[in-house]
Amino acid sequence: MPDAKTLLQEVSTYLPPRDVKNIQRALEFSAAAHEGQLRKSGEAYISHPIAVARILTPLHLDAQAIMAALLHDVVEDTSVSTEEVAEKFGKPVAILVDGLSKLARMEFQTTEDAQAENFRKMLLAMARDVRVVLIKLADRLHNMRTLESMSREKSERIARETLDIYAPIANRLGLHDIYQELGDLGFKNLYPNRYSVLHKALKAARGNRREVIGTIQEAIQKCLDEHKIAAKIQGREKHLYGIYLKMQAKSMPFSEVQDIYGFRVLVDEAPTCYLVLGLLHGLYKPIPGKFKDYIAIPKANGYQSLHTILFGPFGVPVEVQIRTHEMHKVAEAGVASHWLYKSQDSSFNELHKQTHQWLQSLLESLSQSTDSVEFLEHLKVDLFPDEVYVFTPTGKILALPRGSTAVDFAYSVHTDIGNRCVAVKINFELAPLRTELINGDRVEIITAPHAHPNPAWLSYVVTSKARNTIRHSLKTLHLEESVMLGERLLNQAFASLGIKPQDIDATHWEKFLKDSGVKSRTEVLADIALGRRLNMVVARQLARLGDPGSPEHVPLHGVVTIIGTEGLAVQFAKCCRPIPGDPIIGIIKKGHGLIVHTHDCPTLSRGRSGTDEWLDVAWDKHINKAFEVSIKLIVINQRGVLAKAAAAIAEAESNIENVHFTKDVDYTTLHFTLQVSSRQHLANVMRNLRKIPEVVRITRSKGTPTQ
User: Fold this and answer.
1) For the residues 437-457, what does the mean pLDDT come to?
2) Cα(432)–Cα(443) distance, integer angstroms
3) What pLDDT is recorded for position 330?
4) DSSP reduced 3-state for 596
5) Is a pLDDT exceeding 70 seen at residue 569?
6) Sorting pLDDT into bands at 50, 70 and 90, what band is 290?
């Protein structure tokens, strides 16, 4: 096996003889285990593990990882057990192989659920030991190199998941070469025609610019030599998939992509990078707005470099990347630089810290997400981090996906900060929480001890951590609110039966739970609040007061008070938008909880179901909450009338939640959704609006059936 001999030669360049001998033992063991097995291409199966191991040798991974790469399929595809691997090659190797064996079937099935669940497994294994995902990426890369033996349908599916998941993970871990090759191979197999056209265009551009590029390289080298700067200059060509993504993202033709070909200048120290930048800007004019400093603010995967685009001779734009040799090592090897370079450099330590934080953030999101498909979809946002860099009040830099809002920032700082945030200062000025952040923003989150996540946040957060944490918190909050409401409804039923709640002791509850097959008292109370159980029936069963009978005919007495802070357990019907002061009635709708309507709501008569329970409800005397209400204004068509109406509403200390209008020749109908605290407050608002000369008629709107 010539490849086997080459592998042993490669590892012997950086590993001691004892490790090389162990790798040879693993190679021979794997070859024996896979004896007689063939790949779809017709090659001996052992060629695949050897190829995977060889992809990892440039990263200088340790002997355990190389052995695990050689053995990664033996547990799944042969009679060898994990225990046997541990006995022959040690427990650490067996743990890596075991982690990979669980992923060996990651030829994802056709359903999104299977893909998402398999990815969750990979994430968990990756969090335990990042070498698992390094080997898995090498495995995927070799499979992509040999994809032509697969059917068209299967190769397209594998290419798509490579572009969706594996290439972004390689990028996030800073594995530059693996990321580029996975991207190009995925692009080639998923979009062969686009790949072919772009490949020809790039080849033509390369030929047309060859002479100009040579001239520029000579000029740069001469300039640096004159200033006695020791530097290594490399040519650099942007990979095809990267060009395609840029064309897609910015809707630009190939001719407008400016950084197809450029240079990389490697120097010894970071201060020299800025000196070289100044010299190059003196040599060729820079294109305004195209300079990026990733040394002062590194990318999330640890990448550091200065980027600038210059006007070269004949107007040819040329990108130049300037970085130190150490930065270049991280740029090429990413998280694997831990094994590749045994350095105490703080940049390596910071890279591993960032990677660990990223993995922990993903695990936290995973643990709080009950929907694996949703988790995977939102995770893709984090895996394509077109990043924005912002500052905390202490000057710490955080990298977030572009489009992130202040709420995303709050959750990236800490889960508790996100859950308790109530306001934000961006660059020392108050701003809405939904504000999208831009590079360089200084962000300060203001919290309150009793605040909790708002369901509206889900409409504008983009990070998976924020979205999953908000959903998890809302579910928990919903449960707490439902339990409190359920207890009040049950106590009301006890009162109507002349029973004191304290007379129902633990014995009653134990018997009830056992008879009904329910796990806890909390579950019963939540079911009452959500209309899954009737409070009177539960009260009768607990008190053992005869046959519960038909629940529809059990009369209820007493009134449930509405305090306005019940949260999701109590809903205010949008068809009539009740506000304090309105006569109200409550309906317990199965699966929805308590819904409050006004007495004269036009939808009540036609919207009642036979399973609904009607309750007498009343407003609490001490309500301090804003409620939504709809009003309709008919005004004469004159310039500025909308501004006058908005000013009158603001003067009455009400907020406008929404406004829309319909217009005819002489009149306009304005529909406002406002926030008011009571009927008296609404009356004050309407009184202010009537003072406007252009207002012809004003009414409160009801009757849009949404509940």
Assistant:
1) 86
2) 12
3) 78
4) strand
5) no
6) confident
Average pLDDT, the chain: 80
User: What are the b/e assignments for 424-444, b being 16+ CB within 10 Å?
Assistant: bebeeeebebebebeeebebb
H or E stretch covering 176: helix 176-190
Question: Which residue do the tokens 């991207």 mark?
Answer: 183
- For residues 139-151, average pLDDT: 89
DSSP states along 600-643: T-TTHHHH--TT-EEEEEEE-S-----EEEEEEEEEE--TTHHH
The DSSP call for residue 437 is P
Q: What is the arithmetic mean of pLDDT over 117-127?
A: 62
Dihedrals φ, ψ of 659, to 5°?
-150, 140
- What's the mean pLDDT in 286-307? 84
Q: Domain residue spans in the chain? A: 2-193, 194-341, 472-619, 627-700
Min mean pLDDT across 227-241, 375-389, 619-633 is at 375-389
CB 62 within 8 A of CB 14: no
Residues 6+ apart with CB under 8 A from 669: 632, 633, 634, 635, 661, 662, 663
Distance CA 219, CA 282 (A): 12
Q: In what order do the strands lie in the sheet with 627-636?
A: 655-663, 667-676, 627-636, 695-700
pLDDT of 662 > 80? The answer is: yes
pLDDT mean over 426-436? 89
**The amino acid at 330:** V
Tokens of 126: 């990756």
- Between CA 667 and CA 676, with CA 670 as vertex, the angle to 5 degrees is 150
Homologous superfamily (CATH) of 194-341 is Beta Polymerase, domain 2 (3.30.460.10)
Beta bridge partners of 266: 232, 323
CA geometry: angle 156, 161, 166, nearest 5 deg: 130
Is the confidence at residue 681, as pLDDT, over 60? yes
Residue 319's nearest CA partner among 235, 261, 254, 256 is 261
CA–CA separation, 143 vs 586, rounded Å? 62
Q: Over 70: is that where the pLDDT of 175 sits?
A: yes
Report how far residue 434's alpha carbon sits from residue 468's, in angstroms, rounded to the nearest whole number: 17
Task: Tell me which residue of 325, 208, 341 sits closest to 268, measured CA to CA.
Answer: 325
- Residues ≥6 apart with Cβ < 8 Å to 132: 96, 99, 100, 103, 122, 125, 126
Read off φ and ψ for residue 261, nearest 5 degrees. -130, 140
Report the distance separating Cα 132 and Cα 68, nearest Å.
9
pTM for the full predicted model: 0.56
Is CATH 1.20.1050.10 the right assignment for the domain spanning 2-193? no
Residues 62, 339: Cα–Cα separation, whole Å = 7
User: What is the percent of the chain with per-residue pLDDT over 70, rounded to a whole number?
Assistant: 80
CA distance 61 to 67: 10
Spatial neighbors of 515 by CB under 8 A, at least 6 apart, are: 541
CA distance 116 to 122: 10
Is it the case that residue 601 has pLDDT exceeding 80?
yes
The CA-atom distances, in angstroms, between 152 and each of 110, 192, 553 are 14, 11, 65
Facing residues of 595 across strands?
Answer: 571, 587
Concatenated DSSP letters of 261-289: EEEEEEESSHHHHHHHHHHHHHHSPBPTT
The pair of structure tokens assigned to 215 is 């001239």
Q: Could you say which DSSP state residue 599 is in?
A: T
Residues tagged active-site = 76-77
Q: Annotate 629-640 with three-state secondary structure.
A: EEEEEEEECCCC
- Mean pLDDT computed over 635-658: 89
What is the CATH T-level fold of the domain 627-700, as seen in this structure? Answer: Alpha-Beta Plaits (3.30.70)
Which pLDDT does position 530 carry in this prediction? 65
Identify the pLDDT of residue 64: 92
Q: Are 281 and 337 in contact (CB under 8 A)?
A: no
